[in-house]
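May I ask for whichever protein you like with its backbone structure tokens?
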Amino acid sequence: MIIGVPKANIPGAVARTSTMALSNVTITHALQIVNKGYERACSENLAQVKGLNVIAEKLCMRQ
């Protein structure tokens, strides 16, 4: 038996501001990868490694 708990979709309720917040957080990481390349960006910022899932069409993220 599955019991669900109804809860509001908060990002859906404030779609514009949640999109802006997500964009503000992710753009810095994307620019680091674009400007430095993924290898250098990941070596300088270990948080990048956790977000890197695919390299050269191969899955590289480990659980």
